[in-house]
Amino acid sequence: MLNEIGESSKISALIIGEGRYQMPRPTVKVDRPPPHSYHCLPTIADGQPNIVCDRIGQSIVDRRAQVCGELPAVAPPRTQAEFALPRQKDTSMSRPVPSFFFFCLTVWSVASLSLDASVLGATRLPPRPNVLMIMIDDLGWMDLRCQGNERLHTPNIDRLAREGMRFTDAYAAAPVCSPTRAAVLTGLSPARLHITNHIPDQKRFAPPDATLVSAPMLDHLPAQHETFPKELKSAGYATGFFGKWHLAGARKQNTQGEGDLRYYPEFHGFDVNHGGCAMGGPFSYFDPFNLHTLPPQTPGQYLPDRLADELIGFMRANRDRPFLGVLWNYTVHWPMEAPAELIKKYEGRDDLGQLDARYAAMIEAMDASVGRIMRSLDELELTDKTLILFTSDNGAFGGVADNRPLRAAKGYLYEGGIRVPQIVRWPGVVAAGSTCDTPVISMDFLPTIYEAAAVTRSRTHRLDGESLMPLLTQAGSLTRDAIYFHYPNYAFHGGNRLGSVIRQGRYKLIERFDDGSLELYDLANDLGETRNLAATQPTQAATLRARLHAWRQDTKAALPVTAKPE
What we know:
By secondary structure, the chain is an alpha/beta fold. Helix content is 23%, strand content 17%. Strands 4, 5, 7, 8, 9, 10, 11, 12 and 13 form a 9-stranded mixed β-sheet that branches. It has a 4-stranded antiparallel β-sheet with strand order 14-15-16-17, with helices on one face. Strands 1-2-3 form a 3-stranded antiparallel β-sheet, with no helix packed on it. Helix 6 runs parallel beside helix 8 (357-379) and helix 7 (340-347) crosses helix 8 (357-379). The chain is globular, with a radius of gyration of 24 Å.
């Protein structure tokens, strides 16, 4: 696989982890420039790619990437006129046509239109919608009021649910962030991508008594991959990225989160990048954030608010052309930081249970920033023209969230690690207040976006995702009957067992790599995964295991190996 995409066949384990816990603040002093908007674009100078951030035409950063070979420069955005089809004179009829013919043609056309309206009307899509994808980091399945958690205040995301479709059985592609992000962008499973853990994987994640060594993996998303930003950009969309990337190798020491610039959002189809770098979590949620792609602007400003500002500015600038806005917020990831008044609000409550007051405050602050974006769409009169996709990259972080009734949390293959909230709003297409219990997964976003935007793929390889349009329009069902997960690596906490998962219908099977054991759960009757049915339903377990093995073989999934005694 690596040779097919032009990458080195050597997969090395790098030294910096997800950049999340006990993060040292950098000592780099940053002078605060005046408020402005930065647009970071790849360019070619002296035969080598650079990342150049312009402020009103002035080059303020010129950090050359140490790369071999050239990467394409970004072409200027094409205008709407360039995509308009020219009118051509119809010369097919040069002789008069009897009026009776027109009468028959009219009758036939009316009949055809009536048939279309009754049979196909529910699936007819508006042309070229704006696409806004919001992915919250570490937001758990129970971390919204519309999901049933009445201890939290999330009125804006609840509004999304009221105005769109809420998926009750939505899954992240992996129980940690980087694999899910890569899967969303490419429509390919983490197993096929060979990106199966938070970047970069590290030996220190393994527990002292581990009998297995984590499977090898890439520490970046190669720029040669097809991604939906590339395809939409080619189709005339303005493309903007805002927030956490975490697909560009390990961060360099003593930098503001800088990674390998060759794998930044700019080289995956985005015109602008605000915040995307090698960091898995911010150094601080308050400006200055010490992220080299999000320079200081307003001291003390909360990071979700800053990212919302940048996204709103992008939408305003592109209101007259179709745009793709991808907001992958750093929140509600560690460190636990929120506006003081919100923390105080939750600290004074006695009904939180396992919920950390700081975490609850972060969720409310995040919801408020989403509300600002939704109100801006209303003000710009773009609400009816915009498809919004809302989800999370994995389950909630254990210790601050309350994932019940789900078992476990981020970094585990139980439901608490992989089941996530998902809401889709598209006025006029998706029925308001609807729900869907079909299992869906991160790889489904790419083909869904393609179908919504009427984009024809430039490549022909098979995707691991499936368009959700039949579900969104309630016009049909998906063709697949199972979804899969592969986590052959130790999470940051080292508490997980390595394994793979298949969910088919109501049943979920987990196969463990350390001893080959199986866990079979009936999620319809045991959402908390408390009763292992593998021994009492051996035929069902064996059937699912055979399908899981076939899927791993098809994806060429990398497997862990037995640890050598020291």
